[in-house]
Structures are given as structure tokens and as C-alpha cells.
Amino acid sequence: MANARHNRESIISPxxxxxxxxxxxxxxxxxxxxxxxLVSIGHMIDGGGRTALVWAIIFTVAAGAFAFGELSWxxxxxxxxxxxxxxxxxxxxxxxxxxxxxxxxxxxxxxLVTMMTDNTERLTEYRQVYFGATLAAIMIPFLxxxxxxxxxDPVVGFVVMILIPLIPLGIRGFMLLFRKASxxxxxxxxxxxxxxxxxxxxxxxxxxxxxxxxxxxxxGRQGEANRGAIMRLLAGNQIVIIVMDxxxxxxxxxxxxxxxxxxxxxxxxxESVAVMLLTVLLLEPLQQVAGxxxxxxGGRASQKAIESYLAxxxxxxxxxxxxxxxxxxxxxxxxxxxxxxxxxxxxEVLRGxxxxxxxxxxxxxxxxxxxxxxxxMGIIQGTLPxxxxxxxVAGRIIDPQxxxxxxxxxxxxxxxxWMFTGTIADNLRIARQEATETEMWDALERxxxxxxxxxxxxxxDTHLGEGAAVISGGQAQRISLAxxxxxxxxxxxxxxxxxxxxxxxxxxxxxxxxxxxxxWTILMITHRPSLLRIADAAYELKEGKLGxxxxxx
Length: 553
Ligand SMILES: Nc1ncnc2c1ncn2[C@@H]1O[C@H](COP(=O)(O)OP(=O)(O)OP(=O)(O)O)[C@@H](O)[C@H]1O
Description:
This protein has 553 residues and is of the alpha/beta class. The chain contains 18 helices and ten strands. Helix 8 (212-262) runs antiparallel to helix 9.
């Protein structure tokens, strides 16, 4: 409960609250000015002459200015809150991802994408544009009634006041009636984006399995269900507009007209007209209801979705490493682990790991599948926080609260490489944006792939296409090595870099790593004897601890 309140506080910033008040004030001021215009029209009918006309014009212009203020302030505030919320969601995602090294709490990426786009926009539209205006709209009938009761006729004011509770009751009834349609539509949208993202990601697999037609039909069905849900929502909206706007306005205006006729002994003709015109303003909350289904309900559902995401718990026990012991750091070591533990939440995987990798050293780690090698790499890379013990990378103590810093200390080559759609140069510059052509060729040379790229007609400007279809897996892996070398980080973390490549590429990768100058420190996970041969030291990860292996001479 406290957590939910905390999250609500963080998803609606103090500035956001102030903006809501400003937007509401603009709406209130605009309505008061419209009321001023209507009352001035009444005065004109009663012979108020030029003065009444001038007031009517002043009020009208002011009402327009306030309405403009409401729109522009609300829009600007919504965009600012959107930016803030997106950052908040990303930070949360990063915090969860660093703790689990997988999709946090099972949140599919599509849900996060929906949250950062659709939900964020709906929430800010609701909070920054709609909410303040609605609060003001609720106050407007009371102000109008107060004015009618005091300045025109208390009896008319009293009778109309009795009719007013019908409005919130009607609103509430319709809200309940269509709540299901709104959440149904949101669910359908979420599912559809999940399916689309899945299909796009697995396009190749789908094609190879010949499942294209079936997936296309499924997406078509889901799209249809989504369309149906939106149509039901829109139908609800239309019913509300017709029933609320038409029926309520008609009833209220007829009643006030009847009242004005009955009270004609006490009211001037101008006052009767003013009362009838002012009655229209009593329906101000209804104008807001018309927007409730799209903005209000969508915004509230989005708020709930974002709140529950922000409240989700970090997977695995919390980190207990304190970044102390500055004197403990040995600046001749690039990796220094002492009694490091890690538990993904299902029992300890690392149970007191000690490791020292000297600057310029080449250390290999082996271990059976599931022994915890990737977990250990994750800690050194800064994607997982160590839980207990001391850990330092490139001379800096790993602070579990500031893993982004750790992530900038090493460069990794994984088992298989993901290439971005774009040119080879684009893919290299991801590591260092300002890298020159010479530097790129130098890195490619070291990674033993320069000659093959030089033979391509467009060389560095070769487009890799979807899934890097124009190069082989071995070439992609060597470009990935070049990318790591280009990053300027001197600690290279290699996770089975040759496990998915052909024999020739494997030989070239091993040759490339073996020939790197000793400026680079290399820590690799590998089972390949050929890579083990170039290591200065090797360790086996077994039962959560590292044991030294004797290397064949
Ligand atoms: N995010 C996670 N959540 C829960 N358990 C996990 C998670 N990641 C890894 N594990 C578990 O931790 C243990 C060690 O996994 P890890 O991937 O570190 O082993 P590994 O030695 O790298 O295995 P492989 O050689 O197969 O890649 C395994 O039992 C694995 O199931």
C-alpha cells in the first residue's frame, strides 16, 4: 500500500501537480468569463446599452485567451511529464535487468514499449490536460448556482440546485457501465503489440518453419479483436455523448425555461434569458464525461499499469556489497574478486569466488553448463550486482548501486553477435562514435577481418541488411571483436567467442586474440583447447568456487 502510494508520488511529479492546478485555473477562469458574457447579454436585453456590449466583448476575448492558455499549458506540461515518466520507466527497467540479467519479473519487452509510448501518453494526457479541467468543470455549476441564487433569484437557484446531483449520478453510472469495455480494449492492444514484436523478432525462424501464413492469420485475428474492442469503446463514447449531452441538456434547459416563465413576476426578461443561457454552463462536467472514455479511463488504466510495473520487486536478493576498502584495491589487477556470492533467487550459484586477473593477463574460465560462468561474467561486466564480498574491475570497486559505471570499464564479445541494421561502419561506431576510418581499419585488421571487408564493393559502407544476412557468422564475430577493440576499453571479456563459428573463423579469432598486445587484459570463458592454449592461467568454476587448473605446457 505504502509502495503504491510511493509510486503514485513518483509518477506524478510536484511540477505535474502544479500544472494540473494551472490548467484547472485556466478552465475555471474561462468559464467565469463565458458566464460574464452571458450575464452581459442579459443586461443588453434589459437596456444595458453600450456598456453591456463592451463587457460582453471583454469577457468573450478573455474567455478565449484563458481557453488558449489551458490548451497550450496542458500540452506543454503533458510532454514534459511524458519525458520524465519515460526516464523513470527506463531506470526501473535497467534496475530490474541488472538484478536478473533477463526480462525482469517476466515483463515482456512489448509491454514495456506499450508502457513507454501508449500508456505514458494516455496517462499524461489524463493527468496534465484532462484532470485539472475536470476538477474545474465540477466546480463550475456550483459557482453558477451561487451567482444565480445571490444575484438573480434564490428560488430559481434552489430548484436548479436540486437537479444538479443527477449529473454526477449519471456520470458514475456510465463509468461503471463502460469500465469493462475500456480495460478489454487495453488488454487487446497489449496482446497485439506483443504478437507483432514477437513476429518481427522471429521473422527468420518463422520463414524457415514455413509458419508465415499461420502467423499472418493469427495476427489478422488478433487485429480484428483489437478493432472490435476499440469499436465497442467508441460506441460507448457515442452513447454517452448522445444520452448525456442531448438528454441532460434538453431536460435542464426546458426546466429552467419553465422556471423562468413561472418566476416572470420576479425576473426581468434579460435575467430570464441569462438564467437559461447560464444553465448551459451547468452541463460543463458533461462535456468532460464525453472525453472520459478515451482520456479518463485510458489514463487511469495506464496509471495502474505503470504503477504496478514500478512496484514490481527486483528479482534475487538485494545486494549487500558496500563499496568500501579503497586500500584493498591492487592497481596491477584488472579484475579482482574476493569472496563474491550470487544467488538468482534459487540458491547460491557463486559461493565465495576469488579471482585475480593481472593487467595484460590472459585468463580462461571453464566449467560445466549451469556452473555459473555467465553469472560470474555478468558481475564483471556490470550487468549483475555482486551480493557480498569485494569486487573491483579496472581498478574501481563495483558499486552495486552504480553498475552503469562498471559497464563502461570492459568490452565484451558474446557467443553470437547481434549486428544492427546499417553499414559495417555504423556497427563499429556503436562502440565509439567518433572513431575515424583509420581506427576502424586498424581494429578490423587486429580482428583479422579487414581483408574480407576490403574485398567487398562498398567496404566499410557495406549494408549488412536484416540479421546481417550479407556476412557469415564468423565474420560477424570478428567484427564484434573489432568493435570491442575499438571501444578503447582495455579489459576484454570473451564468452565462448568461437563456439558458433566455422573452423577458419575460429582459427582467425584465436590468432587475433593471441596477437593482441599486452595492453589488453583478456578474460575468457571457453572450452576450446585452442583458446585455453593462449591463456596464462585457467580456472574451473565448480560448486560455486573457482579452482586453478594446470595448463598443459
Ligand atoms: N536470471 C536468472 N534467474 C534465475 N536463475 C538463473 C538466472 N540466470 C541463471 N540462472 C541459473 O543460475 C545457474 C548458473 O547459470 P549460468 O548461466 O551462470 O551458468 P553457465 O555456467 O554460464 O551455463 P552455460 O555454460 O550453460 O551458459 C543455472 O542453474 C541457471 O539456471
